[in-house]
# Entry
Amino acid sequence: MIGALVAGQVGSGGASLSSYESIATASGTGSSGIITFSVIPSTFKHLQIRGINRSTTAGVSFSQLNFTCNGDTGNNYAQHYLKGDGSAVSASGYATGGYGGILLYNCMARAGMASGIMGTFVIDILDYGSTSKYKTVRVLCGGDTNGAGEIGINSGLWLSTSAISSLSVIATAGNFTTDTSIALYGIKEA
Amino acid sequence: MPAGATYEPIATSSPTSVGTVDFSSLGSYTDIRIVIFTRQAAGSATDIRIRFNSDTGTNYSFTELYGTGAAAASASTSNASYIAAGLTRNVANIWNATTVDIFNYAGATNKTVLTTDASESNGSGYVWRKVGLWRSTSAITTITVSLNSGNFATGTTISLYGIKAA
# Structure
């Protein structure tokens, strides 16, 4: 992940010289299935979203999250994924498919799982401020319940040259529980 | 507006003649990342294992996705006494690169981790991604990184970084 490349350093005075900064954090409310970051400074080169999450909807298998840019829920996204469920591996993808976003497969825990079980994900968004490039993202996500689990990697593409000004993580089943926490970080370049 | 710089170094260990490293004094962050660059001093290939709060009970599990260079596969391990984060070998000049992201390590939920591992050996090797679980709602106060067998080779570095959300 990008973070490994931008590990902070400590100067002689002890002040952090890290190029990795926290922008905002959002928690689930139990009554909404969407978390949006709408104040994204233009001073960074890349973004990273890190989160733990759980759905209010019953079920014992992990469900999907959807990820959108600038509120665009049109067929303007493409992706590929590789995922494993503890026994089988599968891979697929789509071009400008009908999901209206980039799916994060099977990384949302559900209310039927044991208390405290959370799904998790890290999303890297490269060169989010570019006005000449489509936007590329990469994802590592998964969850484990001690006996069942899902782990996956994704590449995603938003086919737009617009600078990203907002990002949304959307539950495809139910709402985010109150112990859901999703944080946005910015990474500067020299 | 941004809350300021984060992803800060917490501690680094350069172990010699030992197979276990403990980290305490983890600071006050949201997530912790461990960056492990290691080789085994002697013996056959062995797991790099992660434990929390000195818990050696069967309270861990993990699901993995990996490629061998010829095939992709997935496996899971439940009721384990550790999370296997990677595989390291005793091969001269060949080092294994592993990262472990620990989410919300001081929170009240069970603890979930994501790992990446590059275990290359010039002709044989693996690439891994794993999700792990520690079934405890306790805040993590110590982290143990160990080998299943043998010691870390001189030159190994294990570094902790803290990531604090706004």
Observations:
- The CA atoms of residues 78 and 95 of chain A lie 5 Å apart.
